[in-house]
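Researcher: Here's the sequence for the chain we discussed earlier.
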Amino acid sequence: MRSFIAATVCLLFFACAGGYVEGVSQKSEKGFLKFVGNTQFATVSIDGKPAFSLAEDKEKDVVYEVKPGNRQVRVFRNNQLVVDRNVFVDNQATMEINIP
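Model: Thanks. This is the structure I predict for it:
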């Protein structure tokens, strides 16, 4: 009888010991900018950094990764400023910028 009780206690102990796992998961800090509208021949400067051309693939959405926070976005077409916005990009969020 004593061995039966010992075996039952061991079985319960090992059955319950590994069932609960606790942890914290945090996603990396990054946000995204998505440019929509007339992106043809458009270049973008973010926070005063050198401008880059927008991808003109209309078949799929193209997003650009940025650090979360306040960002100054300037869009140029033919060396003329067409968009000048200060935006706040949240962590793991996508901010859409419409280009006229």
